[in-house]
């Protein structure tokens, strides 16, 4: 399994599996007791794409980590 440091993910473009650009990765949540990752917090910026994800109080998309399909030049998530 390839290791990717969280600091290398910050600011990466997050795209839907349909090719739509959802925004930039803002942060990642983690459950403190288990260390299990919870959500990618995606800043949509001015895009305003209807991403069908839960939205936090700041307008960021909360994308479940289980939706991540690929991490390379950008992060691809299942919509």
UniProtKB/TrEMBL annotation:
**Which is one Pfam family of this protein?**
PRC
**InterPro entries attached here?**
PRC-brl_dom, PRC_barrel-like_sf
Q: Which Gene3D superfamilies match?
A: PRC-barrel domain
Query: Which first-to-last residue range defines the signal peptide?
Result: none
Start and end residues of each PRC-barrel domain: 1-78
Q: What is this protein called?
A: PRC-barrel domain-containing protein
The species this protein belongs to is Salinirubellus salinus
């Amino acid at each position: 399994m390839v290791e990717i440091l969280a600091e290398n993910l910050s600011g990466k473009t997050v795209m839907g599996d349909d090719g739509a650009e959802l925004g930039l990765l803002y942060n990642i949540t983690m459950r403190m007791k288990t260390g299990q990752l919870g959500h990618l917090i995606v800043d949509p910026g001015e895009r305003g794409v209807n991403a069908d994800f839960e939205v936090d109080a700041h307008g960021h998309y909360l994308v479940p980590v289980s939706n991540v399909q690929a991490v390379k030049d950008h992060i691809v998530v299942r919509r």
